[in-house]
Specification:
- With 131 residues, the chain is of the alpha+beta class.
- The chain has three helices and five strands.
- Strands 2-1-3-4-5 form a five-stranded mixed sheet, covered by helices on one side.
Amino acid sequence: MPETPADVVQDDNRGAENSVPCRVVVCRDCCCGTVKVSGDHAAQTARLRAVAPVRISECLDVCDQANVIVVQPSAVGRAAGARPVWLGLVNDGDATEDVAAWVSSGGPGVAPRPEILDLYTFTPPRRVKAT
Protein backbone atom coordinates (compact mmCIF):
# COMPACT_ATOMS: atom_id res chain seq x y z
CA MET A 1 0.00 0.00 0.00
CA PRO A 2 1.55 3.37 -0.98
CA GLU A 3 2.40 5.82 1.75
CA THR A 4 0.37 8.99 2.14
CA PRO A 5 1.82 12.18 3.66
CA ALA A 6 0.10 11.40 6.97
CA ASP A 7 1.82 7.98 7.07
CA VAL A 8 5.33 9.30 6.57
CA VAL A 9 7.37 9.89 9.72
CA GLN A 10 10.88 11.17 9.30
CA ASP A 11 13.43 9.39 11.44
CA ASP A 12 14.93 12.35 13.27
CA ASN A 13 13.77 11.57 16.82
CA ARG A 14 11.18 14.35 16.95
CA GLY A 15 8.26 11.93 17.05
CA ALA A 16 4.73 12.22 15.76
CA GLU A 17 4.89 15.94 14.92
CA ASN A 18 6.72 14.96 11.73
CA SER A 19 3.78 12.90 10.54
CA VAL A 20 1.57 15.99 10.17
CA PRO A 21 1.85 17.20 6.58
CA CYS A 22 1.54 20.75 5.41
CA ARG A 23 -2.05 21.93 5.11
CA VAL A 24 -3.93 23.60 2.29
CA VAL A 25 -6.56 26.34 2.49
CA VAL A 26 -8.76 26.72 -0.58
CA CYS A 27 -10.87 29.85 -0.99
CA ARG A 28 -14.41 29.02 -2.10
CA ASP A 29 -16.72 31.99 -1.77
CA CYS A 30 -17.78 34.95 -3.86
CA CYS A 31 -15.31 34.45 -6.74
CA CYS A 32 -13.04 31.50 -6.07
CA GLY A 33 -14.76 28.23 -6.82
CA THR A 34 -17.71 29.79 -8.61
CA VAL A 35 -18.80 30.06 -12.23
CA LYS A 36 -17.06 33.47 -12.30
CA VAL A 37 -13.77 31.56 -12.58
CA SER A 38 -13.34 28.73 -15.06
CA GLY A 39 -12.21 25.29 -13.99
CA ASP A 40 -13.40 22.17 -12.24
CA HIS A 41 -13.41 23.39 -8.66
CA ALA A 42 -14.64 20.13 -7.15
CA ALA A 43 -11.88 18.18 -8.91
CA GLN A 44 -9.28 20.70 -7.73
CA THR A 45 -10.39 20.37 -4.12
CA ALA A 46 -10.52 16.56 -4.37
CA ARG A 47 -7.03 16.40 -5.88
CA LEU A 48 -5.57 18.53 -3.10
CA ARG A 49 -7.41 16.50 -0.45
CA ALA A 50 -5.71 13.40 -1.85
CA VAL A 51 -2.33 14.74 -0.73
CA ALA A 52 -3.01 16.90 2.36
CA PRO A 53 -5.66 18.12 4.77
CA VAL A 54 -7.73 20.82 3.04
CA ARG A 55 -9.79 23.52 4.70
CA ILE A 56 -12.39 25.38 2.65
CA SER A 57 -12.39 29.08 3.46
CA GLU A 58 -14.81 31.90 2.92
CA CYS A 59 -13.50 34.88 0.98
CA LEU A 60 -9.81 35.60 1.59
CA ASP A 61 -10.23 39.14 0.18
CA VAL A 62 -8.01 38.69 -2.86
CA CYS A 63 -10.71 38.14 -5.47
CA ASP A 64 -8.49 39.48 -8.25
CA GLN A 65 -6.32 36.36 -7.73
CA ALA A 66 -9.17 33.77 -7.88
CA ASN A 67 -8.77 30.79 -7.41
CA VAL A 68 -6.65 31.24 -4.31
CA ILE A 69 -4.84 28.44 -2.51
CA VAL A 70 -2.72 28.91 0.61
CA VAL A 71 -0.16 26.21 1.40
CA GLN A 72 0.63 26.25 5.10
CA PRO A 73 3.89 24.66 6.25
CA SER A 74 3.99 21.58 8.43
CA ALA A 75 5.51 21.74 11.92
CA VAL A 76 8.83 20.70 10.39
CA GLY A 77 8.52 23.42 7.73
CA ARG A 78 7.67 26.07 10.34
CA ALA A 79 10.66 24.97 12.41
CA ALA A 80 12.77 25.56 9.30
CA GLY A 81 11.38 29.12 9.10
CA ALA A 82 8.78 28.62 6.37
CA ARG A 83 5.71 30.83 6.12
CA PRO A 84 2.41 30.18 4.33
CA VAL A 85 2.62 30.47 0.55
CA TRP A 86 -0.25 32.20 -1.24
CA LEU A 87 -0.98 31.03 -4.75
CA GLY A 88 -3.41 32.80 -7.06
CA LEU A 89 -4.95 32.19 -10.46
CA VAL A 90 -4.73 28.43 -9.91
CA ASN A 91 -7.43 27.76 -12.48
CA ASP A 92 -6.40 24.70 -14.46
CA GLY A 93 -5.55 21.08 -13.86
CA ASP A 94 -1.85 21.47 -14.62
CA ALA A 95 -1.46 24.19 -12.00
CA THR A 96 -3.33 22.08 -9.47
CA GLU A 97 -1.04 19.12 -10.23
CA ASP A 98 2.03 21.34 -9.67
CA VAL A 99 0.65 22.40 -6.27
CA ALA A 100 -0.26 18.81 -5.36
CA ALA A 101 3.21 17.54 -6.29
CA TRP A 102 4.90 20.18 -4.13
CA VAL A 103 2.57 19.51 -1.19
CA SER A 104 3.21 15.75 -1.57
CA SER A 105 6.94 16.45 -1.37
CA GLY A 106 6.53 18.33 1.91
CA GLY A 107 5.64 21.88 0.92
CA PRO A 108 7.10 25.08 2.40
CA GLY A 109 10.31 24.66 4.37
CA VAL A 110 10.60 20.97 3.50
CA ALA A 111 10.68 20.77 -0.30
CA PRO A 112 11.91 23.47 -2.67
CA ARG A 113 9.02 25.25 -4.39
CA PRO A 114 9.01 24.35 -8.08
CA GLU A 115 9.88 27.34 -10.25
CA ILE A 116 6.59 27.00 -12.15
CA LEU A 117 4.74 27.93 -8.94
CA ASP A 118 6.56 31.28 -8.89
CA LEU A 119 4.08 32.27 -11.62
CA TYR A 120 1.23 31.84 -9.11
CA THR A 121 2.85 33.09 -5.90
CA PHE A 122 1.75 36.46 -4.55
CA THR A 123 1.90 38.44 -1.33
CA PRO A 124 -1.55 39.12 0.09
CA PRO A 125 -2.29 42.68 1.15
CA ARG A 126 -2.14 43.37 4.86
CA ARG A 127 -5.46 43.67 6.54
CA VAL A 128 -5.96 46.87 8.48
CA LYS A 129 -7.91 46.52 11.70
CA ALA A 130 -10.76 48.97 12.16
CA THR A 131 -10.31 51.23 15.14
